[in-house]
Amino acid sequence: MRSLDFTPVSLTVLPLMGVLCGFVQAQETQAMKGMPPRAAASEYQAQAKAGAVTIGAEFMGHSVPTPDAIYEAEDYVVIEVGLFGPPQATARLATGDFSLRVNGSKKVLPNQPYELAFKSLKDPSWEPPKTDEKSKSSFSTNGGGGAGGNPGDPPPLPPKMPLELRRAMELHVQRAAMLEGERPLPQAGLLFFEYRAKTKNITSLELIYNGAAGNAVLALHP
Fold first, then answer.
1. Closest alpha carbon to 65 in 83, 91, 42, 38
2. Where are the domains of the chain?
3. What is the model's pTM?
4. pLDDT tens digits for 95-109?
């Protein structure tokens, strides 16, 4: 009777799977690091107390500052927030803790998940590749400025940022966004509020905190 060959393939696969799982966990941990807090709440534009927690905040306009680079989000305004407390203190953070009042409006803007800002996110340092001047002149000679060189053709689409660069940009913003859950203090991160108008039209700003630590209102400088 022929003996069966039990080659221990699984013994070589399991260590490899362990390495891959460890790599994925490391990537997830890196992505959830959060933004480094400043030295103290006084380092921010405005400060307020909510129970034992001191909140510092600064209005960044349509800029999206991260430790890696500064981006722009034309459909959102951003506020950098830091939370501070006594030694060994923690705070429970949630997306709905913060809202923004613009120009004294009765209707406040809720803090939005950072993922929603990805659609309007731009890197001002990225420049699209230069178009072929010869192609431009041929379009002009043919009498059309469209994508196919004919008068009735739609204009050519603007070049898109390469996928790997966009993914890196989004990852940087994800790391800088305010984390949620029970967190040790100090803690810091970015908040996103949908606001498509120009910031020069803003005359007053109030960041409102209603969370587990208590309530606070911070008057920001537009």
1. 38
2. 33-126+161-220
3. 0.76
4. 899 999 999 999 999
